[in-house]
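Supplementary notes for students who missed Thursday's class. We covered one full example, reproduced here. Read the sequence, then the structure, then the short commentary at the end.
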Amino acid sequence: MDSSFFNLDHEANDWKRLKSRDVLRFLIGFHQEQVAELEAQVELARTERLRCEAGASAIRDALSSERYVR
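Structure (token representation):
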């Protein structure tokens, strides 16, 4: 696709060019918003994974030290 598809050429009607620019800005903004939401979800999942790994490590350490105590 080129700029003529979006009516962004200098020869295009001013009204169409401005409206096309608005549509592109909306789409890019929507995309950025989705990216931000996905990044937040990834960060939450990463935090949860680290918490679970720490818990598993603590349990593993407790169980392995318990064997040697008996």
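Commentary. The mean pLDDT is 81. Helices lie at 14-69. If anything here is unclear, bring it to office hours.
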